[in-house]
């Protein structure tokens, strides 16, 4: 039997793929993650690392969250209150029993159409009756949000255009409107109805005060001087014209989300206004023309003759017998062959036509959105690298855009330096430091040294000790502590008689470069225009900074740093330090 681990509410030692059922400090056995888990329990996607409210894992990341939470960047975040399933923190898909989704805000609210209903629901849910009765604004009988009213209590209250309930006025006179129980003169920018004789829906009255001069917003003004119903696209509710939910509706009843008539070029279809068409050219690419433009279904990207007869599929699906079948769960695009994934999902890499998890990967490029050269994705941000593939390392901006030592960026790819180079620049054959037991040559190559056998006045050629000054000499002559000598001074072997190619001869020392050569540490190499093409600006700057640090370290006597610096190791070799 597979070991699942043991746990408590204070001990987190479950194995990956299991959760802890404990709700106390008592140690219990971990159980496999399953559909029976409830809010507050957590699946372990890695050993001893639970992800709060996770129900299923894919590799070391959460792939499915428990009810009342949603998945974002590998974590399970809480849905809005009273919401069972949601897409984000602002919009709910399904609500907890007893709650309804507000069509305008997308959140779940407990609505009641009367105080009696509020009392009943309050008893069922164990809520105080006064709290439940206040779900709607005061004096409101029916509401669809907690801040506006659809129908006010007719016993003493009227509704305003802004959806509020105000007190009625007693014996209000023509030319006045009621402002929360107080009569005030009308103007043309009212939020409540102006009294103009028996006329309805007036914003202002004629001079006699018996007919409308101007209607309330979106009301129609007829030839007899009356405000008669709403303009197209609006529905009458509590003396207000409210926009239909569908912008293509011409007429809609009080519910607003059902069309009974449509604007030009649209027709009613199942309570909605659908675009009419005569040819497919009238519709979008994802629709067919069947008197109206009908949108393809069944994950079709395009369809023909019927909405479920697919011609092409959405990403993540493949066409099979005019239907769209899902690609494997780890594949984002398998166009042409379900068994040959073209694009893997985040956190996977393609190899041998299938997608493999990036967990533990070091060599293959993992799919982490737009990030490049990732071996794994960051556990907290799928769009960043967790680790880089072999030969790459993270730069200061956390991208895998620079090479590790022993590799050089060539055409945006890290290529391995020549095998005797510890580091290289300009090209993979040009070393800037050498591996152990090798010495830098004037050709910027690393030659096998014979350092232990050298005496003053000698150098290494083809791993053999020879006299200095020969035509084939490519490494410096040993002259006590003097560096970069071609030959030692015949009267004082602590000084140079001449320099290796590229060095200035000053006071019998060879410590600086001649024109046309560039310094890397205390080594001089020929300048090469290819530096600008083989190294990025950042890489060139890095070499310059590194050189300055080395020179500063030498000047300051920072011997411990010199021992760690690869460039200074080469200098020590060139100086034939006796250690």
From TrEMBL:
| PANTHER family in UniProt | CABRIOLET.-RELATED, EGF-LIKE DOMAIN-CONTAINING PROTEIN
Residues forming the EGF-like domain are 78-109, 135-166, 201-242, 243-274, 295-325, 376-415, 478-511
Alphabetical list of Gene3D superfamilies matching this protein: Hormone Receptor, Insulin-like Growth Factor Receptor 1, Chain A, domain 2
Which SMART domains does the protein's record reference? EGF (SM00181), FU (SM00261)
Q: Which InterPro entries match?
A: EGF, Furin_repeat, Giardia_VSA, Growth_fac_rcpt_cys_sf
Q: Origin, by domain of life?
A: Eukaryota
Keywords of the record: Membrane, Transmembrane, Transmembrane helix
- Its source organism is Spironucleus salmonicida
SUPFAM superfamilies referenced in this protein's UniProt entry, alphabetically: Growth factor receptor domain (SSF57184)
Q: Which residues cross the membrane?
A: 539-561
User: What name is this protein filed under?
Assistant: Cysteine-rich membrane protein 2
């Amino acid at each position: 039997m597979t070991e699942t681990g043991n746990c408590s509410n204070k001990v987190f030692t479950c194995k990956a793929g299991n959760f802890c059922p404990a709700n106390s400090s008592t140690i219990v056995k971990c159980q496999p993650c399953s559909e029976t888990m409830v809010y507050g329990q957590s699946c372990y996607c890695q050993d001893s690392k639970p992800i709060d409210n996770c129900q299923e894992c894919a590799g070391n990341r959460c792939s499915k969250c428990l009810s009342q939470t949603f998945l974002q960047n590998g974590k399970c975040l809480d849905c809005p209150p009273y919401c069972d399933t949601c897409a984000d923190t602002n919009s709910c898909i399904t609500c907890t029993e007893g709650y309804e989704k507000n069509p305008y805000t997308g959140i779940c609210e407990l609505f009641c159409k009367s105080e009696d209903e509020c009392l009943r629901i309050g008893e069922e849910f164990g809520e105080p009756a006064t709290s439940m009765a206040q779900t709607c604004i005061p004096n409101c009988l029916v509401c669809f949000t907690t801040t506006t009213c659809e129908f006010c209590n007719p016993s003493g209250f009227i509704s305003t255009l802004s959806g509020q309930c105000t007190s009625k006025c007693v014996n209000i006179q023509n030319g006045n409107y009621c402002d929360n129980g107080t009569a005030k003169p009308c103007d043309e920018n009212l939020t409540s109805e102006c009294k103009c004789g028996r006329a309805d829906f007036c914003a202002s009255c004629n001079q006699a005060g018996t007919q409308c001069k101007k209607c309330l917003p979106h009301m129609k003004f007829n030839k007899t001087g009356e405000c008669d119903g709403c303009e197209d696209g609006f529905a009458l509710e509590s003396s207000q014209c409210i926009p239909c939910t569908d912008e293509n509706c011409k007429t809609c009843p009080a519910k607003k989300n059902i069309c009974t008539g449509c604007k030009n070029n649209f027709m009613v279809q199942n309570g909605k206004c659908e675009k009419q068409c005569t040819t497919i050219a009238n519709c979008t690419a994802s629709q067919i023309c069947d008197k109206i433009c009908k949108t393809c279904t069944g994950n079709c990207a395009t369809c023909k003759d019927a909405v479920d007869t697919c011609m092409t599929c959405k990403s993540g699906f493949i066409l099979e017998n005019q239907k769209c079948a899902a690609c494997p769960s780890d594949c984002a695009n398998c166009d042409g062959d379900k068994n040959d994934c073209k694009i893997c999902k985040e956190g996977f890499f393609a190899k041998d036509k299938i997608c493999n998890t990036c967990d533990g990967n070091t060599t293959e490029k993992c799919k982490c959105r737009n990030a490049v050269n990732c071996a794994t994705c960051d556990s907290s941000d799928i769009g960043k690298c967790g680790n880089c593939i072999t030969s790459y390392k993270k730069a200061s901006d956390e991208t895998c855009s620079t090479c590790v030592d022993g590799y050089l960026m060539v055409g945006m790819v890290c290529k391995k330096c020549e095998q005797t180079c510890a580091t290289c620049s300009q090209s993979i054959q040009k070393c800037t430091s050498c591996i152990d037991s090798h010495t830098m040559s004037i050709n910027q190559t690393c030659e096998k040294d014979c350092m232990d056998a050298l005496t003053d006045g000698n150098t290494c050629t083809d791993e053999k000790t020879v006299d200095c000054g020969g035509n084939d000499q490519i490494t410096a002559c040993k002259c006590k502590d003097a560096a970069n000598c071609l030959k030692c001074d015949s009267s004082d072997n602590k000084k140079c008689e001449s320099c290796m190619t590229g060095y200035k001869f000053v006071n019998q020392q060879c410590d600086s470069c001649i024109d046309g050569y560039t310094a890397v540490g205390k080594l001089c190499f020929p300048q090469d225009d290819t530096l600008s093409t083989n190294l990025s600006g950042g890489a060139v700057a890095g070499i310059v900074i590194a050189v300055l640090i080395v020179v500063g370290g030498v000047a300051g006597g920072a011997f411990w740093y010199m021992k760690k610096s690869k460039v200074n190791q080469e200098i020590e070799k060139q100086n034939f330090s006796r250690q």
